[in-house]
## 1
Amino acid sequence: MSGRGRHAAPELAHRYVLGPRLGEGGSAQVFRGVDTRLDRPVAVKIFRLDDATPEQVRRYAQEARVLAELTHPTLVALLDVGADVLDGTGPVAFLVMELVEGRTLRELLAEGPTDAATAADIGRQVAQGLGHAHAAGVVHRDVKPSNVLVSSRTAPSGHRDAPRVPVVVADFGIAASHGGTASASATASYQSPEQALGLDIGPGSDVYSLGLVLLECLTGDRAYPGDPISTSVARLLHGPQVPPSVDPDWARLLRAMTRQDPAQRPRMRAVEAELRALRLAAPAPA
């Protein structure tokens, strides 16, 4: 049972002391926490069970299962799972994950577009993580700026291929195996055309979504703003508009990643290689 006294901080499984809330979405809340056994900071994602729908329970179980199978420096690491009764909330299930100190890519883009070198650096790391997931048979299905965590830790130096802005990919709650159908939980602004149509999806869907994220990094604008219905229709009628100001090599890659036919899009490993070349060719940000 959780709780260590009337005014004590909430505790889960007699081990994880909860601190401030870091975020919220759907049926889950994410808190900063402390693992009292190992004396380290963690992120704790809590799912309320008393009023959860079967789909929400499925998402929790899916995220736990996927994260347990995937280990990569650019994917958020799962440390523990469990269930408890939280005072004032009721029965909960929880995931304990590595704490990424920093902010989301969505928060970073709220300040304006990135330079090309930073966009390539972030994109290459996201492509690495997603490529690893694809090789394991997993499609993320909800690639978007708020699911990319930008770490505030100092980037390693001394190697030309080391990340300048370290990032990790989070939230595999609606991930699925290759060939799974589209999920209504995916964010409309970044859905692939096949997701908008409710068709079977594969790794190419993540490639498309990452293309939209990278375009937004370079321009500061969403390719498909608006309500879910209008954005879904828009992407079926035309591809995203790549401004003439975008470097030709970037424009070529973005158009390839966002082709209507998923079979015509490059594989994530090829995207990673292209982004690595763009990053090395671009001048380092001041």
## 2
Amino acid sequence: MGKVINTLVTILLVLVIAIVFFVGVDYFSSKIGVKKQTLTTQAVVEKRIEKNMVVTKIIDGDTIIANGEIIRLLGIDADEKGEKCYNASKKKLEKILLNKVVDLEYFNEDKDYYGRKLRYVILDGENINLLLVKEGYVIARVSEDPYKQAFVDAERYARENKIGCKWQENWEEKSIDTDNFVIDDNSIIDACDAKKYIGKKAIVEGKVVEIKNITKAIFLNFERPYPNQCFTAVIFASKFSLFPNVYSYKGKLVRVDGIIKEYNGKPEIILEDPNQIQVVS
């Protein structure tokens, strides 16, 4: 009888030891797995920085050109042309970023479907993408990275407090005293705002949607066809030979440089030199 009891005790001890062993292995394996998983996650969201990039152009409220490359601002979505906050968000970026040296940050997203770089723009330590959301110029389009919650909170605050163009029902841009407004070489005016700057020398940017030739002159109408055009670039017959590829401008985003004049209630610039017009995209 004693031998049987001893045998049973031995079996129980072996079972207990086996259970402890396997539980221990499973516990430590799970710890190691968690650690590996954590390290992998950290690797995925590792911050990458491109330093000392010069912003040479503002395309719209969420797209810029820096060091010759198109940069789509991460975490935000700005209005398209013709929508309420298009001009406001674009002008805000021009005021903040044009010709400034910035750093560009990104985590797990490098480029979008169109091949544009996806980046957070950092100026003097401040995330400009986030600033645009805080001040109500754009809405948040969050990415899965460490900035996600900051953008969610910023939009919620702007929306709840009705801040900026996106969230104020009757929001209007502050009027500009155009009589005393000085346009420097870096100022770019939207074609539909050109009427505010009659008599000023400026760079006007917009899309050429129509080209009309009436023998004596060629008219490049911007944004809308005649007679509802926002702005017109005019080439008189005596200068036709200087613009042999004038029809190639149709459908393109271009910039026109010169003195803005008024004709029949519409702003225009007369082109006398090919250097006055430049294709942007």
## 3
Amino acid sequence: MRHKPSFFLILFLLIASCQPNKNSSYERNSMEVKAFIALLDFDFEALEQELQGLENLIQKLYASKDSVLALADRNMYKIEGHYANSAPNENPALSTLYLPIIPNTDPKAIEEMLLLTNPIDEAFRRVINNNEVISQVYFNSKVQFNRLYPPYDAATMLDPDLDVTAYNFYYEADEVNNPKREMVWVKEIYIDPVGKGWVVSLLNPVYIGDELKMVLAFDISINVILETYLSQTNRKLVILDEAGTVIAGKARAIEALALPPLKNHTYIQTISSDSFRPEEYNLFKSKSKAVRSMISHFLLSGGDQYLLHEGAESFDVHAYKMERTGWLILDVAI
């Protein structure tokens, strides 16, 4: 198991490796942002390794398919309509299962996947208990079957007829959108259908032979990114996705970019389709011409520094790319 370095240790090592120069103040600020990115990248790499471990376990279950099915406990879950083990009366040791009631599903294929993957619940619990940044772990399959831990209120949160392959946490990793069969960080944050608010997801397609059996996933709450990472730096940072939409940021930096305050999603109805950040949080759609010019400079022209004139104020903004996710980290000098 890897030992996680602290933010301040990474910062110290980065500063110690640099020679002092006339731009020492800028260099120190830059090192602090790079330390932030390095810590985030270190943890995200560990998540990829964790997700790979789950795929390895599933591959072993399918390799021993006959014996696993022969020994399977067929009474572990009680299916009630389109779900099993739904909160508030859930067994906390088990996942919640979602089995949408839609045409042309194959009950035998669903039952086989359910029984084959029952042993994965223990590994799902371990992942959640050992990784504070992961809010939930799950998989979706084209046979129309979803297994998710920790358990949630599927009875009221999900409509009974949702196509689980119609969401970005499945299709961004499918055969068409991910022909290289690699792990995928979703391109945009979205509202989690089962109550976790704004999340970003890491996806891992699981193939048995040449058949895509399922897409494994971890969800990371945007609140966790704020509390676990952004809180460790004094820099006024804003994290953007590849499309220029805000993922998370410090309140003062959000204000400086002429954006409305970020609020977590409050559920007033079930989520029946992909739900992304509204356009008001995309810098390309900003009401401010200066902000639109800035984001074009960064994302379209490849620039890394911009003097932003917003109202009566001016801010020096530096941009840093996080290669693993494609995110852009803006450091707003306020």
## 4
Amino acid sequence: MEPFVVKAYAKLNLALDLVGKREDGYHLLRMVNQSVSLADRLTILPSDILFVKCDDADLPDGPENIVYRAAKHFYEIVPEAPKIQIQIEKHIPHEAGLGGGSTDAAAVLQILNQISGKPFSEKALLALGERIGADVPFCIKGGTALVEGIGEQIALLNEMPACKIVLCKPKIGVETKAAFEMADRLPSLEACYSENVKQAVKEGNLIKLSASLGNFFEDILKLPEILKLKAAFLKMGALGAAMTGSGSVVFGIFEDPILAQKCVDSLKKQYDETFLCEPVSVPLQIEP
């Protein structure tokens, strides 16, 4: 096997509704997810043993890394699969709501399945991904999708209309566990964003889609920095803006690429982790 490089794409929640809770404590979600062109780069090399190295000092190498855990699960079921070394070049911010770890894990599962002769069907690979993390199944499918349950129910939708998307991570952290605990104290949960976004995607209506963006966690957390960023996006010409996941990245959708670039240039003066990207219809790409 020759070494090769894989781009693993980030994900956004165009809509995120928390709709209930199972008896086992897992929360039920209804989301419209979108893959975007911001990507980590994974270099895959032949090896005698599984080895994972990440260039971000804030993230673990080896068995503590979600990529290592994903590969280990694969090898437990297919022990004869070729062993690989995985070098991760991080570009997707972590703890941001962009699925950076999940998309890397999903990419490795797909690569291992490919180089092993596809012992897993897509359905079986998605089930394996669910064991790794809630976002992994979507990151295996990629594109534009309605995602329900705890993340395992995925229905692909029409592709999101062409646009530019600006991502910005403020210098605040959002504790996912605390966000879910806050949600548990609310009297009732019902979907309010996902249906409108789903319909706008079906119609291919970017203006309607952008006006329908919404995130349950953003609503209950009411973080001033998030609200400030959303207002900044709209002032700079975004058609709509919202937080993704449980935060803390905020994104704005732009029809005009010149306005999008101006927004990036402006936000970068205050926020280092600001990125310009666009929707993509696949979860990963193998670089030539």
